[in-house]
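Hi there, hope your week has been kind to you so far. Would you mind checking whether the tokens look sensible for this chain? I owe you a coffee for this, so here goes:
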Amino acid sequence: MFKDRRQAGKLLADKLALYATANPVVYALPRGGLPVAEEVARRLKAPLDLILVRKLGAPGHEELAMGAIVDGGAPTTILHQDIVSELAVPDRYIEETKTAALREIERRRQLYMKDSPAISPEGRTAIIVDDGLATGATMEAAVAAMRKAKAGRIIVAIPVAPEDAVRNLLKTADDVAVLTTPYPFLSVGS
């Protein structure tokens, strides 16, 4: 489908060219989203920053996202209540998982950003880029964090995602730019 993440980023940048004059800031979800976002930021001549998000894995099914968390002064958490209810996830497990995720986010912040200040999205067009979506939980949390930070507009940009994840994001983001929605959707990597 794509030779690599950079090629996907260039193709995505073509689709996002209309936002070049909208005072954009491009936010990458590391690690996979960074090479894609670099191409978008370059094409739009926009600043590039990171948004650090961690999936909150369900007990016994850590790859199943019961939600996600974004760091910040007041961390933003989204939970998929249907999964939490279906698996009867205890509040204590949720809190422990959030604490562990925030520790990992802080470790990554020090590794990736050192002392670089974050770029505020307030009043600007925030373009949040990842290399693809599966469930969309981490992107939902990123969108919620951008809303909380008072971004003027929020655009989600991904090369590949399942149609239902795109539909869900259209409920919270102002727009979703996606290059392909394969069916059946197996994984971002495939």
Notes: The chain has two domains: 5-50+117-180, 53-112. The radius of gyration is 16 Å.
